[in-house]
Amino acid sequence: MNYSKNTSSASANKLENFSQFKLDSRLMQGISTAGFEEPTPVQKKVIPMAITGSDLIVTAQTGTGKTAAFVLPILHKLLDRKPGTVSALIVTPTRELAAQIHRDIQELKGGTNVKSITIYGGVSAKPQIRALRSGLDIVIACPGRLLDLMNRGHVKLGKLDTLVLDEADRMLDMGFLPDIKRIIAKTPSHRKTMLFSATFPRQIETLAKKSLTKPQRVSIGMSKPAHTVDHALFPVPQHLKAKLLYRLLKDTNTESVLVFTRTKHRAKSLSAQIAKRGYSATSLHGNRSQRQRDTAIKGFRDGRFHIMVATDIAARGLDIDNISHVINYDIPGTPDDYIHRIGRTGRAKRSGDAFTFITKKDRKMVRKLENIIDSDIKRTTLDDFNYGTKNPYKNRRSGKGKSRKNKWNNKKKTRRGGKYKK
Ligand code: AMP
């Protein structure tokens, strides 16, 4: 993951490692514009196989350069075909990931006139339908809206050459498996299929067996977090998390901070609280409309928002270069989510910090995280932070309940005592 990226513009002779793939010269121009100097491990393995047309099962995660690994062969093959018919379909779990892949295609396609579109719900279908009618080469889609438009006859896949199922395990987690099977059933059987997944639960193995023909397997190894990220755990009682966060924000030199919470509600309320303290903050979670989510991401990318509070929806596919800190306000639910969350910082050659707040209940997950980091993660406490502050709300509820009960009892007594009897 720690590969070189020349953010200005890589000179052509530095691209010699990409020239081994014998890609169309216009794509080499796109690679140069993207600033890539040498292929990443997943690209080295996948690109040649995909160009020859093998079906592929690839174990690789976001951050490995997997998008270019499937996009470049798709573009290369497309250039020999008649434009305007859907030759490639890329199915992804989230809108954010679809948008990211679309952006990567725009960059890598160089001077060619390849047309691609994203199809997902939460926005009007009309522009998508109009674009489909006008003739497209690549469709990048989330399963629900895609199936809807396919059923209504707007997406024609009769000429499909390549199908990519990206982050298949994530799609399974999100309940998309039945939709994916329906989508696959409507594609030509002679298509080439590439399946990307970080993990291979039984259902994904079964899907692969049924949908791929003599697939070759590529494994980039169990992913590890980028070396450019420093990890730290912050033990803290649940009720002091917000205070600790404010203190860290005040005392730490940060460029751009992505805070992760477990729930949508917490993402919303925490970002509002942070904003009240004078920071420019936004939130990204499933209760926000697509327009609000786009505005949040754009504002965060442009630097208009210094802090973004998000649920795991943001952990994958967000490709923003200048995130200096990822703060796990709530520990993630799986080690995989941890890798994805912290993968948002320390991208390319930059360095980043990953702070994770942990409570006593998180012991088990901490052990799992240390396993994937392959070492103990340092525990950090702040000298002048009062970890002993009592939770003012702790006994409030039971107190309330008691007084209500007493009130009721008292009332009953009064009633019995006289008023009504009298
Ligand atoms: P991905 O795993 O596709 O999400 O890619 C993660 C990041 O790596 C993105 O910012 C890509 O632009 C970048 N990237 C992909 N391939 C290369 C490469 N060969 N050299 C440098 N950066 C790359």
Percentage of residues assigned to helices: 40-55%
Poorly predicted tracts of residues: 6-14, 398-422
Largest sheet: 7 strands, parallel
Counting DSSP H or I runs of 4 or more residues, the number of helices is: 16
- The beta-strand count equals 14
Encode the helix/strand succession as letters. Answer: HHHEHEHEHEHEHHEHEEHEHEHEEHEHEH
Report mean pLDDT, rounded to a whole number. Answer: 85
Ions, cofactors, ligands: which are bound? adenosine monophosphate
Biggest sheet: strands side by side, in what order?
3-4-2-5-6-1-7
How would you describe what is shown here?
The chain is built from 16 helices and 14 strands. It has helices at residues 16-19, 25-34, 41-52, 66-78, 95-108, 126-134, 143-151, 168-173, 177-185, 202-211, 241-251, 264-276, 290-302, 335-342, 363-373, 396-419; strands at 56-59, 88-91, 116-119, 138-141, 162-165, 192-197, 216-219, 229-235, 257-260, 281-284, 307-310, 325-328, 352-358, 378-379. The model is unreliable at 6-14 and 398-422 (pLDDT under 50). It is elongated. It is 42% helix and 15% strand. The chain has a seven-stranded parallel beta sheet with strand order 3-4-2-5-6-1-7, with helices on both faces. The chain has two domains: 9-220, P-loop containing nucleotide triphosphate hydrolases (Rossmann fold, 3-Layer(aba) Sandwich), CATH 3.40.50.300; 229-373, Rossmann fold. The structure holds adenosine monophosphate (AMP).
